[in-house]
Specification:
Layout lengths: L8 H17 L6 H12 L5 E2 H8 L8 H13 L3 E5 L2 E4 L10 E5 L5 E3 L3 H10 L12 E5 L2 H5 L2
Parallel strand pairs: 4-6
Antiparallel strand pairs: 1-3, 2-3, 4-5
The structure holds zinc ion (3 copies).
């Protein structure tokens, strides 16, 4: 099932500019496919996407691509820290491009949304609570599964 592209033309232009900046910042080659992958993640915000979801989304935008190159590019973007792999072959866009701490992602098991903790004080309090337990490598996020605030309110 294809989802409708809801971004307006100016939003789309912003996303493309942003995607180019992100690729530049990470010193990655700017290719149409990479731009489109980043664009699709931005458009879907907190939702996680699998390789199959991406192929479905991109089928409108790109004509000549194969599954293998999507998969390769997902791996590149993950290695660069642009995407986080929340489960096997299930990715979210990193919404806090920062390399000074481990990335902390909260996953809601009710609505399947992910959010990233961006407040440095909260992150450092959390790390302190772990009492010296270290996470090496800025590209290795910490995932916490539970129920988000809006979903808790509905329970
Ligand atoms: Zn992140
Ligand atoms: Zn940060
Ligand atoms: Zn939720």
């Amino acid at each position: 099932m294809k989802q409708k592209n809801t971004a307006t033309t100016s939003q789309k232009q912003d996303f493309i500019t942003l995607a180019n900046n992100i690729l530049d910042q990470h010193k990655l080659k700017k290719t149409a496919l990479r731009r489109s992958i980043i664009y699709t993640f931005m458009e879907n915000k907190s939702k996680s996407l699998t390789q199959a979801n991406l192929i479905d989304h991109l089928s409108d935008m790109i004509t000549a691509f194969d599954r293998a190159s999507i998969y390769r590019n997902l791996a590149h973007l993950k290695d660069a820290g642009i995407l986080h792999e929340v489960e096997a072959n299930n990715y979210v866009f990193c919404s806090h491009d920062c390399s000074s701490h481990a990335h902390l992602l909260l996953y809601c098991q009710k609505c399947n949304k992910h959010s990233e903790v961006k407040d440095h004080n909260k992150i450092s309090n959390f790390m302190t609570a772990l009492d010296g337990f270290k996470f090496y490598g800025k590209k290795k996020p910490i995932f916490l599964k539970g129920v988000c605030k809006p979903c808790t309110a509905k329970m």
